[in-house]
Amino acid sequence: MVDLMGQYEKIKEEVDKAIIDVVRSSAYINGPEVKSFKSELEDYLNVKHVIPCANGTDALQVAMMALGLEPGDEVITASFTYVATAEVIALLQLTPVLVDVDPKTFNIDPVAIEKAITSKTKAIVPVHLFGQSADMDAVMEIAKKHNLYVIEDTAQAIGAEYTSATGNSSKVGTIGDIGTTSFFPSKNLGCYGDGGAMFTNNDELAKKIRMIANHGQSKRYYHDSIGVNSRLDSIQAAILRKKLPHLDTYNANRKSAADYYSAAFEDIDWLETPYLDEKSTHVFHQYTLKTKAVNRFALQEYLKEHKVPAMVYYPVPLHEQKAYQDARYQTGDFPVTEALCECVISLPMHSELNKDIQDYIIEKVKSFK
Ligand SMILES: *Cc1c(COP(=O)(O)O)cnc(C)c1O
Fold it and tell me: Atom of ligand 1 at shortest distance to CA of 81?
């Protein structure tokens, strides 16, 4: 699905040197590499504060802790997402309120958000799924109207840009109160282990986030709140510093590869190619097709036989997961999500795809039926 080795080969010398330099410096925790990466990412995103942490799930958890929510408070998120989003809501004893997604963009449906709001609703967590921004104009308008926080789960969309109706363009993750991301190796900006970060333009929230991620410590050995220990390693920061300058190129390569797939699949009547929302650039964390009237798992198996990996993101909606069964929800409650879980399939997508590889994949997909 990804070619991490091919990407590494191109920057091998500088990355190897950066790693060795950290080892030799012995500044393994919160060293200068972490500080430099933090400021470079702030510049790239055009955001006031970046707070690095250990992974994208921690980023969501710490962000939510910083909002001072109480057990029982409701947090609205999409029913079609990776489990981490709902997991941290549940872990903090908040109530995850799931809402359906838009069938074209796969992103949270603002009309459904509005319907799900109660007096207990405190926050909305849109997920920029597969690399394209959620409808942030609508999300922010609802949040403003009902006085809700917005945490953008940007784990799959770092570098994507959203243009609001006013004409303002911003990097996703910097529009709501807090943005969160993951540097898991296969994400668009991946390190060589685990990593994550939170972004905010709000000084107060930044202070709280920094404190919570560091054992709730205001100064060393003085703990003002219950926190967690969530840090980005210096070695990972050093690797990310070498990769960040290439992020736009990596994302552009993904977009070209996606365009090439989509042109090839355009007139196949049993496939629907990804929708491009004019308000957002698409950084194609995943290239996800909707299949029609074919057995999608048979297609996946057929591709596997021909050495083409393909994945189903995601096969089971959140409300049908064993851990998230809830008397509030039944099968049929999220028709779009349920239909997507039945029909989507994602093809190999990364920064190192070339036409030869893609031609082979395309030929195999086409020969399935
Ligand atoms: C990957 C991912 C996460 C979690 O990131 P980790 O670094 O693996 O903890 C959260 N949300 C979404 C949408 C993701 O894709």
Answer: 13
> Which CATH number is 192's domain given?
3.40.640.10
Query: Which residues, 6 or more positions from 339, have their beta carbon under 8 angstroms from its beta carbon?
Result: 103
- What pLDDT is stored for residue 1 in this prediction? 86
Q: Is the pTM of this model over 0.90?
A: yes
What's the CA-to-centroid distance between 166 and ligand 1, angstroms? Answer: 30
367 C-alpha vs ligand 1 centroid, how far in Å? Answer: 34
Ligand 1 centroid–CA 54 distance in Å is 11
Which of 214, 245, 276 finishes a domain? 245
Domain CATH code at residue 277: 3.90.1150.10
Q: Other CB atoms closer than 10 Å to residue 272's CB: what's the count?
A: 17
| φ/ψ bin of 81: left (φ > 0), alpha (ψ from -120 to 50), beta (otherwise) | beta
Residue among 38, 64, 30, 70 at smallest CA distance from 228: 64
**Residues 301-310: pLDDT tens digits?**
999 999 999 9
Count of domains observed in the chain:
2
Q: Which residues line ligand 1 (CB under 6 A)?
A: 55-57, 81-82, 84-85, 127, 153, 155-156, 182, 184, 194, 196
Three-state DSSP string of 90-119: HHCCCEEEEECECCCCCCECHHHHHHHCCC
In angstroms, the CA 215 to CA 54 distance is 13
Instruction: Please identify which residue in the block is written with the tokens 């060393």.
Output: 220
Assess whether 299 and 219 both reside in one domain. Answer: no
In the structure, what pLDDT confidence band is assigned to residue 114 with cuts at 50, 70 and 90?
very high
The parent domain of residue 307 ranges over 246-366
Q: For the chain, how many helices (H) and strands (E)?
A: 12, 14
- Check if the beta carbon of residue 178 is closer than 8 Å to that of residue 154: no
Verify that 47 and 188 share a domain, yes or no: yes
- Taking the C-alpha atoms of residue 95 and residue 346, their distance in angstroms, rounded to an integer, is 31
Q: Which atom of ligand 1 is nearest to the CA of 85?
A: 11
236 and 93, same structural domain?
A: yes
Q: Which residues, 6+ apart, have CB-to-CB distance to 19 below 8 Å? A: 235, 238, 239
- 95 and 73 both lie in a single domain: yes
